[in-house]
What we know:
Layout: E1 14-19, E2 35-40, E3 43-49, H1 53-59, E4 69-71, H2 77-80, H3 83-92, E5 99-103, H4 107-117, H5 119-129, E6 138-142, E7 149-151, E8 154-160, E9 170-176, E10 179-183, H6 193-196, E11 202-208, H7 213-220, H8 226-234, H9 238-248, E12 253-259, H10 268-275, E13 283-285, E14 290-293, H11 301-305
Parallel strand pairs: 3-4, 4-5, 5-6, 10-11, 11-12, 12-13
Antiparallel strand pairs: 1-2, 1-14, 2-3, 7-8, 8-9, 9-10
Helix pairs in contact: 9-10
The structure holds zinc ion (2 copies).
Amino acid sequence: MGMTVDAITVGGDHIVLLGVKGGPAIRPGSQMPTAQLVVLGGQRIVVDAGLGVTRALCDQGVHLATLQTIVITHLHSDHYLELGPLLHTAWTAGLKTQVTVYGPAGLGRYWQAFLDAMRDDIALRIMDEGRVDLASLVQIRVLDAAHDVDLGDVCMRAMRNDHPPLVDSFALRFDGGGGTLCLSGDTAYLPALAEFARGVDLLVHEALLPSGVDALVAATGNGDDRLRQHLLRSHTAADDVGRIAQDAGVGCLALTHFVPDGLAGFTDDDFIALTRKTWGGPLIIGKDGMRIDLKRPNTTLSEQENGGA
Ligand SMILES: [Zn+2]
Ligand SMILES: [Zn+2]
């Protein structure tokens, strides 16, 4: 295709945390819902497509027309609300090659419904602008824990995690290029994840601050106790995240999917203090747009623990 190699592929294997907020709502001062860009072994893989993913990829220098692989870990909206708009925008940005989207059963229905919702616009652009049919460019594949996926020189493995009431919810592991990386996805404390993440250079794990749950629920204003119960039974408290990192012997732990995020009275220091009860190794508090190199990931550590931004 003669696509230009853009800045993001220069340099070593890394991940960019495009959105680190847990949950779908955004408020003044909060970060953006979940998305990541994995750059490993020459492959670029978008993991999750929460609100803001399209803009965030552009901000990283990624030409949307070069997208090839997207993975959706589970069907909570903070992980796939912007999948359709991402693909549609890539199409209008010049996408002409196949994009493969791996995700839980049910993602195909979302994609078909998105195409249907946008069918007038899509038909118009095909007729009026000479574009190829968007539907022909996107292939949805069901992600499961039984089959490894070869992405060039990178092996992607999925492990069913523990995120009730969803059943199809996955942690991911990538081995290839010069590095290894594990993403927890959304999960309750799952000791078996330590085996799945064994020895990786970098574990990116979701993080819950139990002491912040009541304030978050109050800010959200739901009528009963169900949101509170969901948060406590479906996510991992930061001290348990540290246990996973310790048991897995990972090179570095980065926290993401913060619950709460951007809520008055709760800061990075609260997450650091709770994680430090169980994990003494390199620790990174994820931020929107943060790049973490797999082989020298702890450059931001001292900065944070000395009270920097
Ligand atoms: Zn989530
Ligand atoms: Zn979730």
